[in-house]
Design a protein that fits this description.
The chain has about 290 residues and is an all-alpha fold. The protein has one domain. Helix content is about 75%, strand content about 0%. The chain contains 13 helices and no strands. It has helices at about 1-5, 20-45, 55-65, 70-90, 100-105, 110-125, 130-150, 155-180, 190-195, 200-210, 215-235, 240-265, 270-275. The longest helix has 27 residues, at about 20-45. InterPro entries: DUF1774_fun. This is ATP synthase F0.
Length: about 290
């Protein structure tokens, strides 16, 4: 059992060897750059090895007028900020502070796996292999959910960059890609189901806000809801979906502010009390 624990890259550890730290540094940088390169490249270029149904990321988004079609500007800004934050996380792998270094290494395996899943998802998505892309995004959702609940108590520089940012996007991407994948994505039936399923974004966000006081999840999901709202508004002004999306955005944003401001001013440390009482269920929102 002890040897299995040592081999398992997802096992919790209080410290990491020099070799494992070096491995995390190399694989983290390589997979992060891989994720960035394919995201930027296929934002502006179609696959060259290709068929007529192969398009850029946002061409695919616009070709299928689903109930989860996004505004590419807002969504792109979300990813640019996330990539920058992830770069800040990676810097901590060179930290001289043992606590920060161990915390960065502890989530490294999940982060590397997330990058690989994102790379594969983009490669499949732009080539219209939506079924396989959906499978990967669901598996990555399981990976990131496991990360969220298995590694509590880490600082914001880890939580936003490695956990809540990718997790929020992956949750919505299940619907985004899934709506494209189904037959007749622009049909009335698909729109009705879209009108229903979009409310899961609100439920999912409020779960983390209420249960864990995780204002980063609330903010991330509100931004993505805004991307959907703007995308739906410019697609069809007379429709429910953009109204629902903006309602979800506003609700999550207000709930986020209600949690974030007391936490920032030091007037409410409820999440810290929860962490001390039950470290296995605490949010990953400690200070740097």
């Amino acid at each position: 059992m002890e040897r299995a624990h040592q081999i398992n890259p997802f096992a919790k550890r209080d410290s990491h060897s020099k070799n494992s730290i070096l491995t995390y540094k190399i694989l983290t940088i390589v997979t992060w750059l891989l994720s960035i390169i394919v995201s930027f490249y296929y934002t502006f270029n179609r696959p060259h090895d290709g068929a007529w149904q192969w398009h850029t990321i946002w061409e695919q988004n616009d070709l299928y007028p689903t109930a989860f079609r996004m505004n590419h500007i807002i969504a792109s800004i979300y990813w640019i900020v996330l990539f920058v934050l992830q770069g800040g996380y990676i810097v901590h792998l060179w930290s001289g502070d043992a606590e920060k270094l161990n915390a960065a290494c502890a989530v490294g395996s999940h982060f590397i796996l997330n990058n690989l899943f994102h790379f594969a998802f983009v490669m499949l998505f732009v080539r219209s292999y939506f079924g396989w892309a959906e499978l990967l995004v669901i598996v990555n959702f399981a990976n990131l959910t496991s990360l969220y609940f298995r590694h509590p108590g880490y600082a914001r520089f880890i939580h936003e960059a490695v956990v809540s940012g990718p997790l929020a996007w992956t949750f919505v991407a299940i619907y985004w890609n899934g709506a494209i994948m189904v037959p007749h994505p622009a049909s009335l039936v698909s729109r009705i189901f879209g009108n229903i399923f979009i409310w899961s974004i609100l439920v999912y966000g409020l779960f983390f806000i209420v249960t864990y006081k995780d204002y980063t999840m609330g903010f991330n999901l509100s931004v993505i809801a805004a991307a959907i709202g703007v995308g739906q508004f410019f697609r069809q002004i007379i429709a429910f979906q953009w109204i629902f999306a903006f309602t979800i955005m506003a609700t999550l944003f207000v709930a986020t502010v209600a949690i974030a401001i007391p936490a920032a001013t030091g007037k409410d440390f409820g999440w810290q009390r929860r962490q001390e009482a039950d470290t296995e269920r605490a949010p990953l929102l400690g200070d740097n």
